[in-house]
């Protein structure tokens, strides 16, 4: 069994860390269900277990009422009409439905799609599938700060472009794309706009009218709701059509069949409402913690680099490269902190993060990066302990690195001819 570890903090009580419950700084991978959300979900697992599609008795009516309320809550959170909300199993499914659904429906108009290189795999892999079906996809480069160049974006639009998909807030580097400007460009060219807002709701104001989104993917578990539930916003005016990808009983106005998971939906609705209510206070508190973490790391550790724009970024994310340290080794050495290198979806492989590569980072720096995700339940003591642990572990790992030693001796590593192998 692992034993607990005590971290001494300046001027504060020591923080006791149970290695089976490391400090959680991976809020972009997932969030815990907020206790207020859970409380609202529970009755729908037991007492109010009815099927919302059972129209002939009170069990069904109770479930239907709960689903309607949640639909309204999600619609209100994004300034939409409840009839524009389609329940799905998460943002992956929403994005599949949006892109495949629109591509299939509008394929007579054109077969070209635009997206960014730094999108989530839910978008990139869906686009790859559409390419296999004969669609053509432009994967636009981003600038060094992770933001798209609007002129390049507009220039990519062709007469046969039917849909463009852009990530509102990036899951790896937290940068916020200029959504209103992108929306304006796409509407002027009559191209449909799909927004992946999985990491945006509760972090920045999300308004489908302000950004002229035609479709928007949302996820419950990124905003303190349960896993396995998401939604797709599909605009009614002007009407957007998507071809169903899941067939069955014709639920969700034929766009997505399957019995509705009432408890999950109730959780998603409650989480969306709470996310909007707490957005400003969460951002303020989390912003202070992020600044504390950054300052602490920069004061204690040399040769660190921030990935992604600091100006156009949510405070919930900090992505830092620690030069001369291999990220995976650092994460392995940091058993007391739960963080991720690159995105959780790619961390199973040793490929450097494609998002960081798209910012022009070298493989070495991309490999040595850590994503810190700060959230609603992060404390100041946890941040201080993290700084302490990072400073200690980076120092130790660098002591073992011959490259670090050469760098300390002032040798220009770029001037060295490495043997090929
Ligand atoms: C930006 C973004 N889009 C989509 C997804 C997929 O969401 P879900 O887990 O709800 O399918 C995620 C989660 O990893 C994400 O961060």
From TrEMBL:
Instruction: Kindly state which reaction or reactions the protein catalyses.
Output: (sulfur carrier)-H + L-cysteine = (sulfur carrier)-SH + L-alanine
Name a GO molecular-function annotation.
Answer: 2 iron, 2 sulfur cluster binding
Annotated [2Fe-2S] cluster binding sites: 345
Please provide an example of a Pfam family that matches this protein in its UniProt record: Aminotran_5
Enumerate the subcellular locations listed in this protein's record, separating them with semicolons.
Cytoplasm
The positions flagged as active site in the entry are 345 (cysteine persulfide intermediate)
Cofactor section = pyridoxal 5'-phosphate
Q: Which UniProt keywords apply?
A: 2Fe-2S, Cytoplasm, Iron, Iron-sulfur, Metal-binding, Pyridoxal phosphate, Transferase
Where does the UniProt entry say this protein principally localizes? Answer: cytoplasm
Q: Which pathway does it take part in?
A: Cofactor biosynthesis; iron-sulfur cluster biosynthesis
Entry EC no(s)? 2.8.1.7
Q: Where is the Aminotransferase class V domain?
A: 23-385
Annotated residues for binding of pyridoxal 5'-phosphate? 91-92, 171, 199, 219-221, 259
The coiled-coil regions, if any, are none
Which residues are recorded with the post-translational modification N6-(pyridoxal phosphate)lysine?
Answer: 222
Q: Please give a single GO biological process term from the UniProt record.
A: [2Fe-2S] cluster assembly
User: Please, which domain of life does this record's source organism belong to?
Assistant: Bacteria
Cited function: Master enzyme that delivers sulfur to a number of partners involved in Fe-S cluster assembly, tRNA modification or cofactor biosynthesis. Catalyzes the removal of elemental sulfur atoms from cysteine to produce alanine. Functions as a sulfur delivery protein for Fe-S cluster synthesis onto IscU, an Fe-S scaffold assembly protein, as well as other S acceptor proteins.
Q: Assembly state and interactors?
A: Homodimer. Forms a heterotetramer with IscU, interacts with other sulfur acceptors.
PANTHER family per UniProt: CYSTEINE DESULFURASE, CYSTEINE DESULFURYLASE FAMILY MEMBER
Q: Which family does it belong to?
A: Belongs to the class-V pyridoxal-phosphate-dependent aminotransferase family. NifS/IscS subfamily.
Which named protein is this?
Cysteine desulfurase IscS
| Protein's organism | Acidithiobacillus marinus
